[in-house]
Structure formats: C-alpha cells, structure tokens
C-alpha cells in the first residue's frame, strides 16, 4: 500500500482525547493538531518527542489537515492508522502472502453478518463456499520481538470472536488475522493480563474451529506492505 502523497515528519507533543495528537512539524517548527484514527490505548507509543509521520490533506471540508500514520520508537517503525489494516490484509491475500486464504473467486469488505456486525473481509466461491475474516491491528510490544493484542479492554473484539465461532457452527470457515504493523516483531501472543475476557473468548473461538493467522509489515515513508508470516503463540 503506497501512500498517495509524501508524508510529513514531526515530533509528538501529546496524544489526547483518543483521536487527537499535537505535533511539532520538522519543516518550519509549526505546532499542528493531527487526527489519530487509533482509538486504542497505544501503550508505549505516545511518549512526547517521538518521531512521527503524518499524511497531509488539503480537503477544505476537513477540520484537521493531517492524519497520524506511523511513528518510530527504539528503532522500530510502527503503523498506528487503524484505517489501513483491512486494505493491507486484502492486498496480502490477493498477493498470496496468506496461503491459507487463497483460491477464492470474490473478496468483499465490510459485509453485514452475525448480530448486527460487519465482517472485515468475506471470501466467497461457488457452492456457498465462504470464509469470514476479521482483521485486528497490532502495535503493542512489551518484550523485544513479541507483539501483543489487545492493548486495552475490548468487549467489541470478544464479540467478534463469538460471531466468527457462530459462522463455523453454521458450516463456514472463519479466520482471525492479526496484522502486526511493526517491523521488529516475529511472534504474537495475547495480552491476557490486559483483557482476560478477550483471552477467554479467543480460546473458545479456537476450540470452535476459528483459524488464527498473523502477518507482519514492512514500513517506510513511501509504503506499508504486509509481507511475512508471524508465529502465533496464543
């Protein structure tokens, strides 16, 4: 996924009210407020002074003219824009980088299913062959090389796991894909201490037959590519 426009760099002043981040731009030193699409805790990723990359937007209808895309911490690049993961996983599936999810004739996104929910990606083929794919963005890493999910309590995430299990019980395939938007991790674990109920829902979903995959990203100022399998240790 290449960025449509060149990114702008700066230094984080603070992230607040979940969706806002104040940044000092490197070019000229102006202080601006950027939109932060990530509603999670962003644990370990919001220290003042860290280097950040922003997407500029000149749409006159937009109040905030920048969106926070990435950051660098301890030498690692981390993608925090949660509007990107579904597209990145779609690209990875179409490029054959998740072999278990290839061979389908149609891929659709944001399809209604379950109990008033929308599945991130629905894979379909003739004969009512369907695989429901839920995508989660992963940015937390408290140990070197180990990515963790979630970084905050997520009742919504547990609900999604329950609905994936329901699809398996109805005779379809379901898969949870964790997108590791970091370039410094080679394994994924659950942060059960942060959200024990999510861990319980995850275990129940796996027992019901929900498949689990993780894919890591290569990130730079020009593009993000989901390009490598990550070991799942959940």
From TrEMBL:
<dbReference type="Pfam" id="PF17746">
    <property type="entry name" value="SfsA_N"/>
</dbReference>
<dbReference type="InterPro" id="IPR041465">
    <property type="entry name" value="SfsA_N"/>
</dbReference>
<feature type="domain" description="SfsA N-terminal OB">
    <location>
        <begin position="13"/>
        <end position="80"/>
    </location>
</feature>
<dbReference type="Pfam" id="PF03749">
    <property type="entry name" value="SfsA"/>
</dbReference>
<protein>
    <recommendedName>
        <fullName>Sugar fermentation stimulation protein homolog</fullName>
    </recommendedName>
</protein>
<comment type="similarity">
    <text>Belongs to the SfsA family.</text>
</comment>
<dbReference type="InterPro" id="IPR040452">
    <property type="entry name" value="SfsA_C"/>
</dbReference>
<feature type="domain" description="Sugar fermentation stimulation protein C-terminal">
    <location>
        <begin position="84"/>
        <end position="222"/>
    </location>
</feature>
<dbReference type="InterPro" id="IPR005224">
    <property type="entry name" value="SfsA"/>
</dbReference>
């Amino acid at each position: 996924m290449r960025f449509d426009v060149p990114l702008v760099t700066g230094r984080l002043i603070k992230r607040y009210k979940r969706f806002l981040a104040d940044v000092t731009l490197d070019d000229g030193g102006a202080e601006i407020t950027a939109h932060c699409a990530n509603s999670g805790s962003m644990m370990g990723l919001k220290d003042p002074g860290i280097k950040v990359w922003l997407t500029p937007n000149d749409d006159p209808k937009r109040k905030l003219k920048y969106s926070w895309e990435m950051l660098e911490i301890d030498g690692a690049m981390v993608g925090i824009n949660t509007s990107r993961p579904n597209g990145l996983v779609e690209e990875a599936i179409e490029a054959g980088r998740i072999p278990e999810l290839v061979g389908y004739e149609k891929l659709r996104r944001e399809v209604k299913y379950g109990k008033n929910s929308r599945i991130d990606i629905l894979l379909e083929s003739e004969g009512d062959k369907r695989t429901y794919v839920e995508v989660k963005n992963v940015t937390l890493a408290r140990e070197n090389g180990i990515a963790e999910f979630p970084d905050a309590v997520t009742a919504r995430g547990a609900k999604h796991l329950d609905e994936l299990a329901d699809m398996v019980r109805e005779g379809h395939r379901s898969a949870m894909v964790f997108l590791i938007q970091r370039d410094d991790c080679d394994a994924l674990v659950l942060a059960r201490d942060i959200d024990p109920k999510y861990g319980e829902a995850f275990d129940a979903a796996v027992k019901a037959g929900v498949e689990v995959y993780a894919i890591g990203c290569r990130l730079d100022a020009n593009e993000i590519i989901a390009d490598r399998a990550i070991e799942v240790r959940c």
